[in-house]
Amino acid sequence: MPIQHMSSARPVEEGLETVDFDVILPHLKWRLSGVTATLVRLLPIQAQTMKIVATGPGLPRYLPHIPLWQIVLMSGGRQRVWHARRNTEMLLGLVLRDILRKRLILVFTTASQRDHTSLSRFLISRMDEVVATSQRSASYLHRSSQVIMHGIDVDKFTPTSDKGALRQKLGLPDGCLVGCFGRIRHQKGTDVFVDAMLEVLRTRPEMRAVIMGRAVGKHQAFLQGVKQRVADAGYKEMFLFLPEVDVDAMPEWYRVLDLFVAPQRWEGFGVTPLEAMACGVPIVATRVGAFDELVVDGETGILVPPGDIGQMSDAIQRIAIDSEILSGIGAQGRQHVESQFNILQEAQALNSIYGELLSEPDDHR
Predict the structure, then answer these.
(1) Helix, strand, coil fractions of the chain, as percent rounded to 5
(2) What residues have CB less than 8 Å from 90, skipping those under 6 apart?
(3) Tens digits of residue pLDDT in 71-85
(4) Nearest to 208 by CA among 295, 72, 316
(5) Which of 137, 153, 200, 294 is packed most tightly, with the most Cβ within 10 A?
(6) How far apart are CA 300 and CA 269, in angstroms?
């Protein structure tokens, strides 16, 4: 079903009887998060072949959407899928199904890579189907699940044929650029990247570090501490601290890099390595989250232990000093993402689950 046919789901003033949907994606959070970004990326693609809507605050207006109050008033006679990605969304699904008697099939996706709380375990146990975003996430579940890894838009994230011209457009210097993008906080390991680059720059002064992202609330002090560390070392001119840019602009910023570093201490999944590889950029990443399932060590990048400054700086230098290695690993990374992590594959796998669940009689689940 083409996405333009879903436009009737958007206006709040239209009656519920005009809305035709089989799948509901709840979003019960105002603040932008990785879960939000996943939903926003996937829904337009899923809506091409599935009658699907989002509900909740804080989502772009162009998405197929109905207000929460209409969910409460919808008829209980039609069977639909409720796909939750947070505890609050699982809980609301249970209320709708078990108390308000809506005919809902409850699906939950988890990226968590830690032991679940007792509340989460209870909620997960009440789901009809569970999806894990990696094998590691699946290992923390005490029930069966299907593993569907995140993908990215490989038509949007692509290599450039003229890196020099693009750098000039963005006001970036020549030389070897090593990037680290994403939220800036201790968990994300921004300080580890800075310390590793300080080690590298002592022998490779022609290189530059590009740090792009946002630090909010209590994490602003962490960012200031990282900047002060650079200034105290006397390398202020070799580090570019850039503000967060709109998601549509991100492919250009990956394309100008020679190397991308994902230095996280902890991560649920993490799509930045995929985005960089899709743009033909080699990776140095820590063995956290799903990174060791995304990066082929020695072929599309190098994996190092989290928090290990020495191994990270060594890995950066090993890749960055040889242009042939850079281009070879970059090309393999692009091919790897195209074949394994195309967002179309993720959308099709999820829609396939919905279709199977909707075709089953209630007593078969």
Answers:
(1) 45, 15, 40
(2) 84, 106, 108, 123, 124, 126, 127
(3) 888 887 889 999 999
(4) 316
(5) 294
(6) 18
